[in-house]
Design brief:
- It is a single chain.
- The chain is an alpha/beta fold and about 525 residues long.
- Helices cover about 60% and strands about 5% of the residues.
- It has helices at about 5, 35-55, 65-70, 75-85, 90-105, 110-135, 135-150, 150-155, 160-180, 185-200, 210-225, 230-250, 265, 270-275, 275-295, 300-320, 320-325, 335-355, 365-375, 380-385, 395-405, 420-430, 445, 460, 485-495, and strands at about 410-415, 435, 440, 455, 465-470, 495-505, 505-515.
- Strands 2-1-5-7-6 form a five-stranded mixed sheet.
- Helix 22 (about 420-430) links the parallel strand 1 and strand 2.
- About 45% of the residues are buried.
- Its main location: membrane.
Length: about 525
C-alpha cells in the first residue's frame, strides 16, 4: 500500500449504497477519539482566537456596534418595546449580550469577546467538518484557512451576531452529516436544534437549508434509505422556530431598505466576504481547481459545499426586490464552504495524480493554500483593524476631545444626514455625565426606537444653557447644521455664535456660545 493510500484513505460514504436487490446495507459510522478531535480542532481555534483578540479593543466602535450596546443595556421592558419596532430578528443576540454585560461590563473588548470566542469555535468546527467530509489533512487546512481570513478577524472583533451565524451554520451542517450517517430520530432532532440556533442569531443563515436539501436529495437518490426523509422533521423544527422572527422582521423591513444591489455591491462581494481581494483570489482559485478535480469521484461533498457557497447569495439576489437581504455581512456564513473546498485542493491532487501511479504529498499539501493566503492577507488584516471602520465617523476621538474640555452645565446637540452621533456619544461619554442633550424631548427609550425625538420648539428645551457642543457628521463642504429642522437652526444661530472647534474623520465639532443679551 502506498503512502498516499495509507494517509489519505478514500472518503467513506455518508450512507450505504443500494444493492441491486434493493437492500441498503447498514452504514458504518465513523468515529474519532476525543483526543484526536481536540488535537485537530485546537490549532485553528487558537489561531482564530489570537487574531481576533489581538487589538480587539483598539478599533473604535461603529454605528451597528453602538446599536448593540444600546439594545443590550436596556431593561427587559425597554428592550421589548424596542424590538416591537426594530431589530426583532437580532433579539436573541441582544438578550445573550445583555447577560454577558451584566457579568463582564460594556467595554469595547467585553462587547466583542463573544464574537471572538464564536470565531474560534467556528474554526474548530470547520476542521471537524473537513475531516468528516474528506480527511484529517483537509480538516486541519480548512480550519486554518478560516482562522486566517481577514473577514473572520474583522467580525471576530465586532459586537454583532455574524460570528455566531457562521458558527451555527457550520454546526448545523456537521450535525446533518452525523444524522445522515446514522439516521436516528435523536440525531435529526439535534440537527433541527442546530438549525434553530442558526436562524435565531440571524434569519438569513437559514438559507443554508437550500444546500442541505440539495445534498440530502442527491444522497437519497443514491441510497433510497427512507430514514433520510426524517430530514424534513429537522427542517420543520427550524422553520417553525424562525417563523415568528421572520414575520416580525418583515414588518420592520424598512430598516434595511437602504441596501442596494448595484454593480458595486456585486463586484465587491468577494472582497467583503473574504476581507480582501488578494485572499478572495487565492481561496476561490484553489476552491475552483479542487472542484474540477474532485467532481468525478467525490461529487457528494463538492455538491454540498458548492450549494452552501453559492445558493444563499443567489437566493438573496433573486429575492432582493421582495426581501432586501443581499448584503455581504448577511452572507458571511458561506465562508466555511469556500475554505473547505480550497483546503481539499491537496486532497484532490493526491487522488488525481495517484491514478497515474504518483506518490505526491498528501492532502496536507493543502497547507500551501494556507501559506499562500496568509502571505497575501497582511493588507486585509490591517484593514480589519483600522480605526475607525472605513467610511465611518471617528466618534471615539471626538468624544475624547469633548471630555477634555466639557464642563458641568454644557449642552450637546447633533446634526448630520449620514450618521447621527447621539447613540455613539452616549456610549463614549457614558461615565462622564457632563453633557446634557439639550434638544431631546422624548428619549429613544420612550420612543421604543434607536432615535430620540427632538423638540419642535427648541427654546424651552435649551433653556439658559451657556455653551453647546455641536457634533456634526455633515461633509466638510456643507452646512454643519445640515439635517437639523429649520426652526432649530434658526434659534441656535440667533441665540448663539457658532465656531468650529476640531475636526476628525467624517466628523466635526462646533462650539455654540450664548450671545450676551443686549
Amino acid at each position: 500500500m502506498s503512502d498516499a493510500q495509507l494517509l489519505s484513505p478514500p472518503v467513506p460514504r455518508i450512507i450505504g449504497q443500494r444493492r441491486p436487490d434493493g437492500h441498503v446495507p447498514p452504514t458504518v459510522a465513523r468515529s474519532w477519539s476525543v483526543l484526536s478531535t481536540v488535537a485537530l480542532a485546537l490549532p485553528p481555534a487558537l489561531l482564530a482566537l489570537t487574531l481576533s483578540v489581538v487589538g480587539i479593543g483598539s478599533r473604535s466602535m461603529w454605528n451597528d456596534e453602538y446599536a448593540t450596546w444600546y439594545a443590550a443595556t436596556l431593561s427587559f421592558r425597554d428592550l421589548a418595546k424596542l424590538l416591537t419596532n426594530v431589530d426583532a430578528v437580532v433579539a436573541p443576540y441582544y438578550l445573550v449580550l445583555h447577560f454577558w454585560i451584566e457579568v463582564f461590563g460594556d467595554s469595547e473588548t467585553s462587547l466583542r469577546m463573544p464574537s471572538a470566542l464564536a470565531m474560534a469555535a467556528t474554526a474548530a468546527l470547520v476542521a471537524v467538518l473537513g475531516r468528516r467530509l474528506f480527511d484529517t489533512g483537509v480538516g486541519l487546512t480548512a480550519g486554518l484557512i478560516v482562522a486566517g481570513l481577514p473577514a473572520v478577524t474583522r467580525y471576530g472583533q465586532e459586537a454583532r451576531p455574524y460570528a455566531f451565524a457562521i458558527g451555527f451554520a457550520t454546526l448545523a451542517t456537521l450535525l446533518l452529516l452525523r444524522a445522515m450517517e446514522r439516521p436516528t430520530w435523536r440525531r435529526w432532532i439535534w440537527y433541527g436544534v442546530g438549525l434553530v440556533l442558526a436562524g435565531l442569531v440571524h434569519i438569513v443563515t437559514l438559507t443554508v437549508l437550500l444546500a442541505h436539501a440539495v445534498f440530502l436529495g442527491r444522497t437519497f437518490r443514491v441510497s433510497g434509505d427512507l430514514r433520510l426523509l426524517r430530514w424534513f422533521a429537522g427542517a420543520f423544527i427550524a422553520v417553525t422556530a424562525a417563523l415568528p422572527l421572520a414575520a416580525k422582521g418583515s414588518e420592520q423591513s424598512s430598516v434595511i431598505s437602504w441596501i442596494k444591489v448595484d454593480a458595486e455591491a456585486l463586484t465587491s462581494l468577494p472582497e467583503r466576504i473574504f476581507g480582501s481581494w488578494q485572499v478572495a483570489l487565492v481561496v476561490c482559485a484553489a476552491a475552483v481547481l479542487a472542484t474540477v478535480l474532485l467532481w468525478s469521484h467525490h461529487r457528494g461533498p463538492v455538491v454540498l459545499l458548492l450549494s452552501w457557497a453559492l445558493f444563499p447569495p443567489l437566493f438573496c439576489y433573486v429575492t432582493f426586490p421582495l426581501l432586501h437581504l443581499f448584503l455581504h455581512r448577511y452572507l458571511l456564513f458561506t465562508v466555511p464552504a469556500w475554505a473547505l473546498l480550497a483546503a481539499a485542493l491537496g486532497f484532490s491532487l493526491a487522488r488525481f495524480t495517484r491514478r497515474a501511479g504518483s506518490t505526491v504529498p498528501l492532502s496536507l499539501s493543502g497547507l500551501l493554500v494556507v501559506a499562500g493566503m496568509l502571505a497575501v492577507s497582511g493588507p486585509g488584516q490591517q484593514a480589519a483593524r483600522h480605526s475607525p471602520v472605513y467610511g465611518e465617523p471617528d466618534f471615539r476621538s471626538a468624544a475624547a476631545a469633548l471630555a477634555a474640555v466639557a464642563e458641568p452645565g454644557d449642552g450637546i446637540a447633533y446634526a448630520g444626514t449620514t450618521r447621527n452621533g447621539r447613540r455613539a456619544l452616549d456610549y463614549e461619554v457614558r461615565r462622564l455625565g457632563l453633557l446634557r442633550d439639550v434638544l431631546v424631548e422624548r428619549t429613544s427609550q420612550e420612543n421604543g426606537t434607536f432615535g430620540a425625538h427632538e423638540c419642535t420648539d427648541p427654546g424651552p428645551c435649551v433653556g439658559d444653557t451657556r455653551r453647546i457642543w455641536l457634533v456634526s457628521t455633515t461633509a466638510a463642504n456643507l452646512d454643519p447644521m445640515d439635517g437639523m429642522p429649520g426652526p432649530t437652526q434658526g434659534f441656535l444661530l440667533t441665540a448663539y455664535t457658532l465656531s468650529e472647534y476640531r475636526s476628525f474623520e467624517k466628523i466635526r465639532i462646533f462650539v455654540l456660545n450664548r450671545k450676551d443679551p443686549r
